[in-house]
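Structure catalogue
Derive tokens from sequence
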Amino acid sequence: MSDTPRARALAKELRAARSAAGLTARELARALGWSEAKVSRIETARRGILVQNVEAILDVLGMKDGDRERLLKMARDIREPAWWELGRELPQQLTALIDAEQRAKTITDVTLNVLPGLLQTRAYTRTVMEASGVPEDRIDDHVSIRQVRQGILSKRDPATMRCFIDETALTRPIGGAKVMADQLQKIISACEEPNVTVRVIPLSIGAHAGLSGTFVLFEFGKPRPVVYLEARRSGAFIDEPDDVALFFDAVERLEDHASDLEASQEILQKYLEQYESEAK
């Protein structure tokens, strides 16, 4: 299977490894006894990436131990289609987002107007999708996909998720009082897990570093971090280090301005009680 998010991620890593070793594509091809075109096709995910080919490349590059095993695992995983690649016609940007979520070690979600997708209830997600114009016959499928995506927070080796939520998102009664009460209860319950933290950016501070737009910062460990920006039913990834550094700076500023964990829980609880009262 080629030209999938996972194949492109592996191809990118192989290009980076070759570059770090000081080899050109032509020099690598010569060492392997391959054509330069074959190396190019592998490094751009324009052909299937076989495990034995990755092994051969890593042998030439002298890569050993943990990095070698990590890249070989990526190559083996490509041969087994992921659940989001089977029988679904999902937009490419969504499959790339799901793949990033699956591989990430740490996810930092900065949200302004709606609550984080990975912490949403079905009812909350449905209301947001209805309002954004998702066709009625596709809403159930999209809601289910978002719920399945949340499994990255409860798997055996779960991702760590940090959320910065603008208080504005708590004041907007999406779906009505009952939906909001259930939604806030889910977020409060999620915070009981050691890998999930939520910080609220209070309205009282006025302007803050997150006002330029919602974004999600993915950190993977060895591969360099990326930022996902979502617009109306579309999205884009940013991976240039200088550009990504701007978002790390924004997160540092939000760390200074957001309420601490205890105060954030108090804010969430306050809105929960408000919506529960209104729902009676």
Remarks:
- The longest helix spans residues 261-279.
- The chain is about 55% helix and 10% strand.
- Confidence is low (pLDDT under 50) at residues 83-87.
- The longest strand covers residues 160-166.
